[in-house]
Amino acid sequence: xxxxxxxxxxxxxxxxxxxxxxxxxxxxxxxxxxxxxxxxxxxxxxxxxxxxxxxxxxxxxxxxxxxxxxxxxxxxxxxxxxxxxxxxxxxxxxxxxxxxxxxxxxxxxxxxxxxxxxxxxxxxxxxxxxxxxxxxxxxxxxxxxxxxxxxxxxxxxxxxxxxxxxxxxxxxxxxxxxxxxxxxxxxxxxxxxxxxxxxxxxxxxxxxxxxxxxxxxxxxxxxxxxxxxxxxxxxxxxxxxxxxxxxxxxxxxxxxxxxxxxxxxxxxxxxxxxxxxxxxxxxxxxxxxxxxxxxxxxxxxxxxxxxxxxxxxxxxxxxxxxxxxxxxxxxxxxxxxxxxx
Length: 341
Fold this sequence. Notes:
Blueprint: H1 2-28, E1 90-95, E2 114-119, E3 128-133, E4 144-146, E5 166-168, H2 182-199, E6 203-206, H3 217-227, E7 230-237, E8 245-249, H4 254-257, H5 262-282, E9 287-294, H6 298-301, E10 307-314, H7 321-340
Parallel strand pairs: 3-6, 3-7, 7-10, 8-9
Antiparallel strand pairs: 1-2, 2-6, 4-5, 8-10
Protein backbone atom coordinates (compact mmCIF):
# COMPACT_ATOMS: atom_id res chain seq x y z
CA UNK A 1 0.00 0.00 0.00
CA UNK A 2 2.81 2.33 0.85
CA UNK A 3 4.65 1.66 -2.45
CA UNK A 4 1.49 2.18 -4.48
CA UNK A 5 0.91 5.58 -2.95
CA UNK A 6 4.48 6.58 -3.60
CA UNK A 7 4.10 5.64 -7.27
CA UNK A 8 1.04 7.84 -7.65
CA UNK A 9 2.82 10.71 -6.01
CA UNK A 10 5.78 10.47 -8.44
CA UNK A 11 3.46 10.41 -11.45
CA UNK A 12 1.59 13.45 -10.22
CA UNK A 13 4.77 15.41 -9.64
CA UNK A 14 6.06 14.52 -13.16
CA UNK A 15 2.81 15.68 -14.77
CA UNK A 16 2.97 18.98 -13.00
CA UNK A 17 6.53 19.48 -14.18
CA UNK A 18 5.66 18.80 -17.86
CA UNK A 19 2.66 21.09 -17.81
CA UNK A 20 4.73 23.83 -16.33
CA UNK A 21 7.39 23.46 -19.04
CA UNK A 22 4.87 23.45 -21.94
CA UNK A 23 3.11 26.50 -20.73
CA UNK A 24 6.29 28.44 -20.53
CA UNK A 25 7.36 27.50 -24.09
CA UNK A 26 3.99 28.34 -25.77
CA UNK A 27 4.07 31.79 -24.22
CA UNK A 28 7.31 32.69 -26.13
CA UNK A 29 6.42 31.37 -29.70
CA UNK A 30 3.27 32.45 -31.59
CA UNK A 31 1.41 29.50 -33.05
CA UNK A 32 0.53 29.53 -36.88
CA UNK A 33 -2.64 27.68 -36.29
CA UNK A 34 -6.08 29.39 -36.79
CA UNK A 35 -7.04 28.84 -33.35
CA UNK A 36 -4.47 30.22 -31.06
CA UNK A 37 -4.22 29.15 -27.51
CA UNK A 38 -5.17 31.82 -24.95
CA UNK A 39 -2.39 32.73 -22.73
CA UNK A 40 -2.48 30.88 -19.54
CA UNK A 41 -2.88 33.23 -16.67
CA UNK A 42 -1.09 32.06 -13.66
CA UNK A 43 -3.29 32.60 -10.62
CA UNK A 44 -1.11 33.18 -7.77
CA UNK A 45 -1.70 30.86 -4.93
CA UNK A 46 -2.41 32.71 -1.77
CA UNK A 47 0.51 32.26 0.48
CA UNK A 48 -0.54 31.47 3.94
CA UNK A 49 0.73 34.19 6.23
CA UNK A 50 2.06 32.51 9.29
CA UNK A 51 0.07 33.51 12.29
CA UNK A 52 1.94 35.61 14.72
CA UNK A 53 2.35 33.47 17.64
CA UNK A 54 0.34 34.74 20.52
CA UNK A 55 2.44 36.75 22.79
CA UNK A 56 3.19 34.91 25.83
CA UNK A 57 1.55 36.84 28.59
CA UNK A 58 3.40 36.06 31.64
CA UNK A 59 1.14 34.50 34.07
CA UNK A 60 0.46 36.81 36.94
CA UNK A 61 2.16 35.44 39.90
CA UNK A 62 -0.11 33.88 42.33
CA UNK A 63 -1.20 36.41 44.86
CA UNK A 64 1.16 36.23 47.76
CA UNK A 65 -0.72 35.37 50.83
CA UNK A 66 -0.01 38.18 53.28
CA UNK A 67 -0.67 36.95 56.74
CA UNK A 68 -3.29 39.05 58.41
CA UNK A 69 -1.98 41.06 61.34
CA UNK A 70 -4.16 40.12 64.22
CA UNK A 71 -5.98 43.05 65.70
CA UNK A 72 -4.32 44.06 68.94
CA UNK A 73 -6.09 42.78 71.94
CA UNK A 74 -7.83 45.58 73.79
CA UNK A 75 -5.66 46.94 76.53
CA UNK A 76 -7.07 45.96 79.83
CA UNK A 77 -7.12 48.90 82.19
CA UNK A 78 -6.34 47.53 85.61
CA UNK A 79 -9.04 48.32 88.02
CA UNK A 80 -8.15 49.05 91.58
CA UNK A 81 -9.48 46.47 93.92
CA UNK A 82 -11.15 48.36 96.71
CA UNK A 83 -9.56 47.75 100.06
CA UNK A 84 -12.08 45.90 102.15
CA UNK A 85 -13.21 47.72 105.22
CA UNK A 86 -11.81 46.12 108.36
CA UNK A 87 -14.38 44.06 110.15
CA UNK A 88 -12.82 44.54 113.60
CA UNK A 89 -13.75 47.67 115.56
CA UNK A 90 -10.03 48.49 115.77
CA UNK A 91 -6.68 47.03 114.76
CA UNK A 92 -3.53 46.92 116.87
CA UNK A 93 0.08 47.13 115.68
CA UNK A 94 3.46 47.34 117.36
CA UNK A 95 5.46 50.54 116.93
CA UNK A 96 9.16 50.61 117.77
CA UNK A 97 11.62 53.36 118.53
CA UNK A 98 13.89 53.54 115.47
CA UNK A 99 17.14 55.44 114.98
CA UNK A 100 15.68 57.72 112.29
CA UNK A 101 13.23 59.38 114.70
CA UNK A 102 14.23 62.79 116.03
CA UNK A 103 15.70 62.58 119.58
CA UNK A 104 15.71 58.76 119.51
CA UNK A 105 19.47 58.77 120.05
CA UNK A 106 18.95 60.23 123.56
CA UNK A 107 16.99 57.16 124.69
CA UNK A 108 18.79 54.48 126.72
CA UNK A 109 15.97 51.91 127.11
CA UNK A 110 13.83 50.97 124.12
CA UNK A 111 13.97 47.20 123.64
CA UNK A 112 10.18 46.74 123.47
CA UNK A 113 7.42 48.32 121.37
CA UNK A 114 4.37 50.39 122.17
CA UNK A 115 0.96 49.40 120.75
CA UNK A 116 -0.95 51.59 118.30
CA UNK A 117 -4.70 51.01 118.06
CA UNK A 118 -6.34 52.26 114.86
CA UNK A 119 -10.06 52.87 115.13
CA UNK A 120 -12.23 51.34 112.36
CA UNK A 121 -15.64 52.23 113.74
CA UNK A 122 -18.16 54.52 112.09
CA UNK A 123 -17.50 57.24 114.69
CA UNK A 124 -13.72 57.35 114.14
CA UNK A 125 -12.41 60.90 114.29
CA UNK A 126 -8.80 60.50 113.09
CA UNK A 127 -7.21 61.83 116.31
CA UNK A 128 -4.56 59.75 118.07
CA UNK A 129 -3.98 60.05 121.80
CA UNK A 130 -0.86 58.67 123.47
CA UNK A 131 -1.77 57.16 126.85
CA UNK A 132 1.32 56.70 128.98
CA UNK A 133 0.90 54.71 132.19
CA UNK A 134 3.62 56.26 134.34
CA UNK A 135 6.57 54.21 135.64
CA UNK A 136 6.69 50.45 134.98
CA UNK A 137 10.18 50.03 133.50
CA UNK A 138 12.25 47.71 135.66
CA UNK A 139 15.86 48.86 135.99
CA UNK A 140 14.96 52.37 134.84
CA UNK A 141 16.24 54.01 138.03
CA UNK A 142 19.77 52.71 137.47
CA UNK A 143 20.10 54.30 134.02
CA UNK A 144 20.45 58.02 133.42
CA UNK A 145 19.50 60.07 130.38
CA UNK A 146 20.08 63.69 129.37
CA UNK A 147 17.51 66.10 130.79
CA UNK A 148 17.42 68.47 127.81
CA UNK A 149 18.29 67.75 124.17
CA UNK A 150 20.66 70.75 124.11
CA UNK A 151 22.47 69.60 127.28
CA UNK A 152 21.42 72.56 129.44
CA UNK A 153 20.59 71.97 133.15
CA UNK A 154 17.12 71.64 134.66
CA UNK A 155 15.49 74.93 135.64
CA UNK A 156 13.28 73.51 138.43
CA UNK A 157 13.55 70.77 141.04
CA UNK A 158 11.42 67.64 141.37
CA UNK A 159 12.47 64.01 141.40
CA UNK A 160 15.69 65.39 139.87
CA UNK A 161 17.29 68.47 141.42
CA UNK A 162 17.42 71.87 139.76
CA UNK A 163 20.72 72.32 137.87
CA UNK A 164 21.09 68.62 137.01
CA UNK A 165 21.84 67.67 133.41
CA UNK A 166 20.88 63.99 133.70
CA UNK A 167 17.93 62.21 135.28
CA UNK A 168 16.70 58.68 135.95
CA UNK A 169 15.58 57.07 132.70
CA UNK A 170 12.35 55.99 134.46
CA UNK A 171 11.57 56.34 138.16
CA UNK A 172 9.93 53.45 139.98
CA UNK A 173 7.14 55.60 141.47
CA UNK A 174 5.64 55.60 144.96
CA UNK A 175 3.41 53.14 146.83
CA UNK A 176 -0.15 54.03 147.83
CA UNK A 177 -1.04 54.02 151.51
CA UNK A 178 -2.48 50.52 151.10
CA UNK A 179 0.81 49.27 149.63
CA UNK A 180 -0.28 49.21 145.97
CA UNK A 181 2.58 50.31 143.68
CA UNK A 182 1.83 53.45 141.68
CA UNK A 183 2.76 51.68 138.43
CA UNK A 184 -0.11 49.21 138.99
CA UNK A 185 -2.73 51.92 139.43
CA UNK A 186 -1.45 54.04 136.53
CA UNK A 187 -1.77 50.97 134.29
CA UNK A 188 -5.33 50.27 135.49
CA UNK A 189 -6.30 53.87 134.73
CA UNK A 190 -4.57 53.78 131.33
CA UNK A 191 -6.48 50.65 130.28
CA UNK A 192 -9.84 52.16 131.30
CA UNK A 193 -9.02 55.37 129.40
CA UNK A 194 -7.89 53.37 126.35
CA UNK A 195 -11.25 51.63 126.10
CA UNK A 196 -13.19 54.88 126.53
CA UNK A 197 -11.13 56.61 123.83
CA UNK A 198 -11.65 53.74 121.39
CA UNK A 199 -15.41 53.71 122.06
CA UNK A 200 -15.49 57.42 121.27
CA UNK A 201 -13.67 57.20 117.95
CA UNK A 202 -10.06 57.93 118.88
CA UNK A 203 -6.95 56.04 117.85
CA UNK A 204 -4.79 55.22 120.86
CA UNK A 205 -1.05 54.78 121.27
CA UNK A 206 -0.53 52.68 124.44
CA UNK A 207 2.97 52.99 125.87
CA UNK A 208 2.47 49.96 128.06
CA UNK A 209 -0.28 47.42 128.73
CA UNK A 210 1.72 45.19 131.07
CA UNK A 211 3.37 45.66 134.43
CA UNK A 212 6.77 46.18 132.83
CA UNK A 213 7.68 47.78 129.51
CA UNK A 214 11.25 48.51 128.51
CA UNK A 215 10.73 52.05 127.26
CA UNK A 216 12.31 54.98 129.07
CA UNK A 217 10.78 58.45 129.32
CA UNK A 218 12.58 59.73 126.21
CA UNK A 219 11.52 56.71 124.14
CA UNK A 220 7.92 57.15 125.27
CA UNK A 221 8.01 60.82 124.33
CA UNK A 222 9.59 60.27 120.92
CA UNK A 223 7.02 57.59 120.06
CA UNK A 224 4.24 60.01 121.03
CA UNK A 225 5.85 62.71 118.87
CA UNK A 226 5.70 60.48 115.81
CA UNK A 227 2.52 58.45 116.26
CA UNK A 228 0.11 60.66 118.23
CA UNK A 229 -1.46 64.11 118.25
CA UNK A 230 -1.10 64.58 122.01
CA UNK A 231 0.50 62.80 124.96
CA UNK A 232 -0.90 62.31 128.45
CA UNK A 233 1.23 60.61 131.12
CA UNK A 234 -0.77 59.32 134.10
CA UNK A 235 0.60 59.70 137.64
CA UNK A 236 -0.31 60.17 141.30
CA UNK A 237 1.71 62.42 143.60
CA UNK A 238 3.72 61.16 146.56
CA UNK A 239 2.08 63.52 149.12
CA UNK A 240 -0.39 62.09 151.61
CA UNK A 241 -3.23 64.58 152.12
CA UNK A 242 -5.42 63.84 149.10
CA UNK A 243 -4.47 67.10 147.45
CA UNK A 244 -6.55 66.67 144.29
CA UNK A 245 -5.58 66.64 140.62
CA UNK A 246 -3.23 68.99 138.80
CA UNK A 247 -0.92 68.97 135.78
CA UNK A 248 2.76 69.85 135.50
CA UNK A 249 2.91 72.96 133.35
CA UNK A 250 5.86 74.24 131.32
CA UNK A 251 8.14 76.45 133.46
CA UNK A 252 8.02 80.16 132.70
CA UNK A 253 11.82 80.41 132.56
CA UNK A 254 12.52 82.25 129.27
CA UNK A 255 15.65 80.23 128.55
CA UNK A 256 13.71 77.01 128.92
CA UNK A 257 10.77 78.18 126.84
CA UNK A 258 13.11 79.26 124.03
CA UNK A 259 14.71 75.80 123.77
CA UNK A 260 13.41 73.52 121.02
CA UNK A 261 11.18 71.62 120.90
CA UNK A 262 9.72 73.37 123.98
CA UNK A 263 9.53 76.70 122.12
CA UNK A 264 7.24 75.19 119.48
CA UNK A 265 4.91 73.31 121.85
CA UNK A 266 4.71 74.87 125.31
CA UNK A 267 1.62 76.98 124.68
CA UNK A 268 -0.33 74.05 123.25
CA UNK A 269 0.91 71.79 126.05
CA UNK A 270 -0.35 74.20 128.71
CA UNK A 271 -3.67 74.52 126.87
CA UNK A 272 -3.95 70.73 126.78
CA UNK A 273 -3.34 70.62 130.54
CA UNK A 274 -6.02 73.24 131.16
CA UNK A 275 -8.49 71.20 129.10
CA UNK A 276 -7.75 68.05 131.10
CA UNK A 277 -8.33 69.90 134.39
CA UNK A 278 -11.66 71.23 133.11
CA UNK A 279 -12.67 67.72 132.08
CA UNK A 280 -11.78 66.33 135.52
CA UNK A 281 -13.60 69.18 137.23
CA UNK A 282 -16.70 68.39 135.16
CA UNK A 283 -16.97 64.91 136.76
CA UNK A 284 -16.41 66.18 140.32
CA UNK A 285 -12.70 65.48 140.74
CA UNK A 286 -11.09 67.73 143.38
CA UNK A 287 -8.54 70.08 141.79
CA UNK A 288 -5.36 71.20 143.53
CA UNK A 289 -5.15 75.01 143.80
CA UNK A 290 -5.07 76.51 140.30
CA UNK A 291 -4.75 73.10 138.65
CA UNK A 292 -1.07 73.24 137.71
CA UNK A 293 2.49 73.34 139.06
CA UNK A 294 5.47 74.40 136.96
CA UNK A 295 7.91 71.54 136.45
CA UNK A 296 10.89 70.93 134.15
CA UNK A 297 10.31 67.34 133.00
CA UNK A 298 12.24 65.14 130.59
CA UNK A 299 8.89 64.40 128.90
CA UNK A 300 8.14 68.08 128.28
CA UNK A 301 11.71 68.84 127.22
CA UNK A 302 11.59 66.38 124.30
CA UNK A 303 7.93 66.78 123.23
CA UNK A 304 7.03 68.09 119.78
CA UNK A 305 3.29 67.46 120.34
CA UNK A 306 1.15 68.81 123.21
CA UNK A 307 2.29 66.77 126.19
CA UNK A 308 1.16 66.69 129.82
CA UNK A 309 2.03 64.82 133.00
CA UNK A 310 -1.30 64.69 134.87
CA UNK A 311 -1.31 63.95 138.63
CA UNK A 312 -4.73 62.48 139.45
CA UNK A 313 -4.34 62.67 143.24
CA UNK A 314 -1.79 61.36 145.70
CA UNK A 315 -0.94 58.26 147.72
CA UNK A 316 -4.00 58.48 149.94
CA UNK A 317 -6.50 59.17 147.14
CA UNK A 318 -9.21 56.64 146.31
CA UNK A 319 -8.00 54.36 143.53
CA UNK A 320 -10.85 51.84 143.50
CA UNK A 321 -12.58 50.80 140.30
CA UNK A 322 -15.37 53.37 140.52
CA UNK A 323 -12.95 56.20 141.26
CA UNK A 324 -10.72 55.21 138.34
CA UNK A 325 -13.71 55.02 136.00
CA UNK A 326 -14.77 58.55 137.02
CA UNK A 327 -11.25 59.88 136.47
CA UNK A 328 -11.19 58.27 133.00
CA UNK A 329 -14.47 59.98 132.05
CA UNK A 330 -13.00 63.29 133.18
CA UNK A 331 -9.87 62.76 131.10
CA UNK A 332 -11.99 61.87 128.06
CA UNK A 333 -14.03 65.05 128.54
CA UNK A 334 -10.80 67.06 128.69
CA UNK A 335 -9.41 65.41 125.54
CA UNK A 336 -12.69 66.12 123.70
CA UNK A 337 -12.45 69.73 124.81
CA UNK A 338 -8.86 70.02 123.58
CA UNK A 339 -9.71 68.81 120.07
CA UNK A 340 -12.75 71.06 119.79
CA UNK A 341 -11.21 74.26 121.21
